[in-house]
């Protein structure tokens, strides 16, 4: 297995087998890895874990609704140059002083292979992924203003996350390795929790998980709590020192798990019903 | 063998491109999968399947190709019978019809439960078709019996076992998903125009103007882009729509939560809109349809949700409304036509599964007036595309 199976998760990030495989396929084939999944399943964290696990620097590009593909490569600060020329500051004659590489540009220019995280790609305009195609394929772009070409010294490991707010174009999808992070099963979740709270008692974790999955199963709850919320919640419980017997009757620190008022209300109704049945 | 799998996937609706297949071959050439079928399963999925909604289909294809398990399209005879329409014949009195409907629902429920029991014992089923059935009465409660397939358990987890567990069943596209996915679909209903106060810096214009101004900075503002879509949602409630209450609620709450519309109005009706539309489900607080049509202009997008299944006279005759005391002066069809004329950008969403559609006369009548789409995420997307691309 020539150099395959290199990424195996890190101490702080537990990756399932299929996720490891997807990462390694992307690494070996030098294709972008596209990640989807429920919010809070650790899509962004994965990029950090890959960087950490493989000892590569991480460059982040947080995409916003106004982001343009071009900005990722470089930005030419015209206004600054205009301003400088007006007030006679800086070296206006050299256009290079006003060209700043974006995250994509920096990942190309880097002396070593880096992990480039393009976070929440679906936040941007529909055309954004298509505009990136050429750069990601050829791993080079030209700075129009100076006619210089930036060529990747090492093809970066590109990790792209999406919350599925918009469908991504087919041409873009064809070039990616795709992985959907499924919500972890209880066994896996136990491992994840242990990583974050290593000193916790096994029974406490088990009880917390039972309650947590039970809450997720309630169909009335719209925004189901995620892994990251579970970890925060268990952290709060551990610090607050909750005795296990009360867990059956109430859920302490509910605000950590449920963020919507409607959900909290729905949950109270569920609990009320439960009390009637058991009473 | 592998090239067969390529065509097998394609023929079952996973449109693997040649590029992707070549990538897979490259990966295999580098021995990325080793000799393990499990690794091949992951590898092939990562490269060839790009939508989680297709994971389930992939699982079925994989299981069936590598183990000669049943192909996803196969439908058992019994199930087909069962799906054939329980909709009553048209010329019955309302009382008779109500009785019949109630009976039918009972019977359906019995069949449903019976089926569910059988399923647990026999482990059969599994068909794309019933996936759509998520919107059928049988799908309510998310317990789609035909969707249940139990893979081998315990022991070493082979790829086929994992595939036949079908863990990703809930991600399928043709099954109605949750509020969020409807919300995502609704976000496509956008038409951006510059509108309102000029408070956004127009960089290009600023530079142009500054240059013309001999370098003295001249700042130019413009109005930000805003969505101009106005949406009118009309929903059928009660009667034959009762099984779909949850589904409609989800669509409603998604539309209501979507704050990107310039304006959003919703009204209820029972079976067919007449001279009044209602603001509450109990159909008490109403507004005159005529008044509404005058008030809202042609720019409004109109979506009607209903099963379009009723007695023909509810559409075609005056006084035919389902409510005996209603005694509508004009037939429902006239009102539907008025709505369609007023809002050229309109679509009808039907929660009934497609095969039901042709079984009701009224459905066919309504389809002459409105373009009809199934109320699934895919159907909703199609409807939105239809509305958006409609040249008016």
Describe this structure in words.
The complex is a heterodimer of chains A (279) and B (392). With 279 residues, chain A is of the alpha/beta class. Chain A is built from 12 helices and 9 strands. In chain A, 46% of the residues lie in helices and 14% in strands. In chain A, helix 8 crosses helix 9. Chain A is elongated, with a radius of gyration of 23 Å. Among the domains of chain B are: 181-189 and 229-389, Rossmann fold (3-Layer(aba) Sandwich), CATH 3.40.50; 197-222, no CATH class. In chain B, the strands form 4 sheets. In chain B, strands 6-5-9-10-11 form a 5-stranded parallel β-sheet, covered by helices on one side. In chain B, strand 5 (230-236), helix 11 and strand 6 (263-269) form a beta-alpha-beta unit. The radius of gyration of chain B is 26 Å and the shape is flat. Chain B starts with a helix and ends with a helix. Residues 69-92, 100-105, 119-157 and 173-177 of chain B have low confidence and may be disordered. The A-B interface holds A 1-2, 4, 17-18, 21-22, 24-26, 28-29, 31, 34, 36, 78-79, 82-83, 85-86, 164-166, 170, 173-180, 182, 222 and B 17, 19-20, 23, 26-27, 30-32, 34, 38-39, 42-43, 45-47, 49-52, 55, 167-168, 171, 178-179, 181, 184, 187, 203, 206-207, 210, 215-217.
Q: What is the CATH superfamily label of the largest domain in chain A?
A: P-loop containing nucleotide triphosphate hydrolases
Give the CA-CA distance, first to last residue of chain B. Answer: 52 Å
Name the overall outline of chain A. Answer: elongated
How many DSSP helices of chain B? 17
State the secondary-structure class of chain A: alpha/beta
Q: Could you name the ranges of chain A where pLDDT drops below 50 across 5 or more consecutive residues? A: 1-5
Task: List the quaternary state of the chains.
Answer: heterodimer
Along the chain, the helix and strand elements of chain A come as HEHEHEHEHEHEEEHEHHHHH
Strand content of chain A: 5-15%
Rg of chain A computed from alpha carbons, rounded to a whole number of angstroms? 23 Å
């Amino acid at each position: 297995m020539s150099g395959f199976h290199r990424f195996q998760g890190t101490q702080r990030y537990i990756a399932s087998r299929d996720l490891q495989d997807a990462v390694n396929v992307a690494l070996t084939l030098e294709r972008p890895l596209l990640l989807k999944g429920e919010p809070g399943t650790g899509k962004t964290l994965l990029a950090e874990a890959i960087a950490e696990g493989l000892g590569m620097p991480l460059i982040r590009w947080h995409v916003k609704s106004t982001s343009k593909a071009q900005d990722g490569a470089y930005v030419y600060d015209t206004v600054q140059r205009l301003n400088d020329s007006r007030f006679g500051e800086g070296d206006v004659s050299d256009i290079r002083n006003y060209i700043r590489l974006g995250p994509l540009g920096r990942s190309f220019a880097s002396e070593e292979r880096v992990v480039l995280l393009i976070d929440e790609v679906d936040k941007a305009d529909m055309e954004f992924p298509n505009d990136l195609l050429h750069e990601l394929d050829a791993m080079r772009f030209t700075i129009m203003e100076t006619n210089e070409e930036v060529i990747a010294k090492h093809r970066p490991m590109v990790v792209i996350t999406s919350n599925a707010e918009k469908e991504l174009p087919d041409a873009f999808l064809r070039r990616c390795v795709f992985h959907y992070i499924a919500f972890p099963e209880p066994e896996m979740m136990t491992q994840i929790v242990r990583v974050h709270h290593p000193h916790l008692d096994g029974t406490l974790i088990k009880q917390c998980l039972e309650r947590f999955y039970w809450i997720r199963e309630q169909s009335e709850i719209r925004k189901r709590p995620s892994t990251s919320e579970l970890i925060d919640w268990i952290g709060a419980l551990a610090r607050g020192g909750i005795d296990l017997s009360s867990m059956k009757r109430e859920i302490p620190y509910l605000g950590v798990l449920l963020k919507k008022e409607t959900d909290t209300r729905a949950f109270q109704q569920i609990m009320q019903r439960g009390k009637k049945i058991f009473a | 063998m592998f090239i067969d799998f390529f065509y097998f996937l394609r023929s079952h609706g996973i449109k693997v491109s040649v590029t992707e297949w070549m990538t897979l071959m490259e990966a295999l050439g580098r021995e990325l999968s080793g000799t393990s079928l499990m690794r091949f399963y992951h590898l092939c999925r990562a490269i060839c399947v790009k939508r989680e909604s297709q994971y389930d289909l992939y699982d079925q294809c994989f299981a069936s190709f590598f183990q000669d398990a049943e192909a996803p399209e196969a439908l058992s005879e019994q199930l087909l019978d069962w799906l054939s329409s329980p909709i009553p014949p048209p010329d019955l009195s309302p009382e008779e019809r109500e009785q019949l409907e109630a009976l039918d629902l009972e019977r359906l429920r019995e069949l449903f439960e019976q089926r569910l029991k059988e399923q647990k014992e026999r482990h059969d089923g599994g068909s794309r078709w019933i996936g759509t059935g998520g919107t059928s009465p049988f799908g309510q409660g998310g317990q789609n019996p035909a969707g249940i397939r139990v893979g081998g358990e315990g022991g070493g987890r082979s790829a086929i076992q994992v595939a036949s567990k079908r863990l990703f069943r809930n991600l399928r596209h043709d099954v109605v998903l949750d509020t969020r996915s409807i919300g995502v679909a609704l976000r496509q209903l956008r038409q951006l125009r510059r509108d309102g106060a000029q408070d956004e810096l127009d960089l290009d214009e600023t530079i142009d103007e500054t240059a013309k101004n001999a370098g003295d900075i001249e700042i130019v503002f413009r109005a930000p882009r805003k969505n101009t879509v106005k949406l009118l949602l009309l929903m059928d409630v009660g009667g034959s729509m009762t099984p779909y209450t949850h589904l409609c609620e989800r669509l409603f709450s998604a539309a209501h939560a979507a704050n990107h519309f310039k304006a959003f109005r919703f009204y209820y009706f029972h079976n067919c809109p007449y001279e009044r539309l209602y603001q509450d489900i109990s159909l008490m607080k109403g507004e005159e349809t005529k008044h509404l049509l005058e008030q809202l202009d042609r720019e409004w997008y109109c979506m009607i949700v209903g099963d379009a299944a009723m007695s023909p006279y509810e559409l075609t005759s005056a006084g035919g409304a389902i409510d005996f005391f209603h005694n509508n002066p004009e037939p429902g069809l006239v009102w539907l036509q008025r709505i369609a004329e007023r809002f050229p950008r309109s679509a009808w969403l039907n929660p009934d599964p497609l095969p039901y559609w042709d079984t009701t006369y009224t459905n066919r009548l309504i389809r002459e007036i409105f373009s009809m789409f199934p109320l699934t995420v895919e159907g909703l997307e199609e409807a939105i595309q239809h509305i958006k691309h409609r040249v008016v």
